[in-house]
Amino acid sequence: MRGRMRLWSAGRRSAAGLVMTATLAAPVSAAPPAQAAQPDPPASSPGTPHSGLFALPEYYLSGHGPVSVAAGDLTGDGRQSLAAVNIADGTVSVLLGRGDGTFGPPVPYPAGSGPSDVSIEDLRGIGVLDVIVADSSSGLVSVLLGNGDGTLGLPVPYPAGPGPSSLSVDDFNGDSIPDVAVADQYSGTVSVLLGRGDGTFGPPVPQLAGSAPSSLDSGDFNGDGITDIAVVNLGDATVSVLLGNGDGTLQPPRPYLTGPGPTDLAAAVLRDAGDDQGDDEGRGGTGRGKVSGGDAGNLDLIVANAGDGTVSVLLGNGDGTFQPARPYLSGPGPSAVDTGDFSGDGIADVAVGNASDSTLSILLGNGDGTLGPPLLHLAGPGPSTVEVDDLRGDGHSDVIVANGRGSTVTVLLGTVAAGAAGGGGGGGGGAAGDVRDSC
């Protein structure tokens, strides 16, 4: 589910300690706290921490029970910082970035009684990023306006629907002002809150989505220039596609079967420009990076299925419909998914957080919509969100994991620049193919 960065406007070491070079931002023990202890990776795994795709993981204190994390330049100096929501504390913590992929200590802000997701956006169009938090306990979305120096204002709450579990910030009515869509897990709806351009929002407009929606993403799935929504429904193992009408309202949901227990999804371009299944023109104007040759091909959906240890890929047809789901083994209890170019070939790959064994799986893309076997990496206790971003501005896809059963976020710095392997003009933003980061 998200805590995913969806940057609205175009542009986003400490001393090594014990236990897999764990690094803590706060002045505490050099090793991670007890609840953040990591299991050993399978001895036969091809993706041990020395797979070559990432440096060894580093750990940063965030708060108790971080369930979502987002990245963005909160200080206006070109350095990516992190915002993590901590469900056990009722806070959102800001970890200021140093520009080299490392982060300072957490600074907490009140975020409600049960924060569940977070996004970082410029809600006012002034070049200063703000923080938006969904609170599943109170049915609210809170906005903490940024001051431009890494600090935030007090939260301003807005009603959403019952049990908002995930949010997406996008332009749903075509006025170039960020709006918010929220998955309401208790009512089976998606609520859209239209932005006013000054950091405030109108009342929620609900639309039926499915049974117990757990995560959502947005993009242009049919190429008409209007933002659409896809939402995974935990209650009936489906993903519903709701095409936008261009005025902030949505068409009735069209469901597609996924795997058992869908928990998260990402909309991404998995087929490169040379694949004949793709389209010549890219879809979605708010993508988190681009594949070789630009945003080529139709948007596809990738769903994490906690019930059978797989991710499902539903290839988009470019007209708002999708092909039947194709499963790929990922790891035990997959709880979060995102995409990036981790191998440097300009093709989108898939990153999956596995809650049952505290690992991160990387499934390399083949460029035709299919995925390779999982390469395992250590993450942290109970990965609940996976966020892909370029934390150092060097064209690498880096991964941030919110460890929901601990008190840390894990950072795995990529070692291969996007497109470096000859994919030709990869994503620049370090996350080829996903629709949530670049404009």
Automatic annotation (TrEMBL):
Write out the ranges of the annotated region (Disordered).
30-49, 273-294
Entry keyword annotation includes Aminoacyl-tRNA synthetase: no
Which UniProt keyword terms apply here?
Signal
**What InterPro entries does the annotation carry?**
FG-GAP, Integrin_alpha_N
Q: Which Gene3D superfamilies did the record assign?
A: 2.30.30.100
Gly residues compositional bias: what residue ranges?
284-294
Pfam families (UniProt xref): FG-GAP_3
- Signal peptide residues on this chain, from the entry's feature table: 1-30
Write down the superkingdom of origin.
Bacteria
The name on file for this protein is: Repeat domain-containing protein
Record the organism: Parafrankia irregularis
